[in-house]
Amino acid sequence: MSIGHALLALLEAGPRHGYDLKRAYDTHLGADRPLHYGQVYSTLSRLLRNGLVEAVGTESGDGPDRKRYAITDAGITDVEAWLAAPEKPEIYLQNVLYAKVVLALLSGRDAQRVLDAQRAEHLKHMRELTKRKSDGDLVDQLICDHALFHLEADLRWLELTAARIDQLAEQVRTKPEGDT
């Protein structure tokens, strides 16, 4: 996700300090991956340089002076374009798990063990997400649903691959090198 676009969108509600932006981001978007303060301020500096935000005042407090930032018209236009543009679907044609299965087969190792270990890891994470979902608010429920649906798709792939492992082993072993 674009941190810059997220901060711009959060600024549409009104001017904020970097600390307030970090807190809002962490609350709404970064529960599992909170922003570092350095990310916030380096991103604000870039947005300021690019004319997407402006400093609208400085306040003194117990610590260093705090700048308040506001989104500019150019920033609003940028957020609108970003929100309107669909994300490219993540297509996993060359993922690590597939590579591990093929390399296990090529090296004479038990690829089924690779699949079983991964299945156990997926199920463990699904149990954790299901618990989090049942204990969480609507935001947590939606985030967990998204992750659970992806894990379910991975599990379907694991089962399909396990069912076809003998065919895959034969094809991998007999395919000439350099043949794509």
From TrEMBL:
**What is the recorded name of this protein?**
PadR family transcriptional regulator
| Pfam families, per the entry | PadR
- Per the record, the domain of life is Bacteria
Location of the Transcription regulator PadR N-terminal domain: 7-77
Q: Which InterPro entries match?
A: Tscrpt_reg_PadR_N, WH-like_DNA-bd_sf, WH_DNA-bd_sf
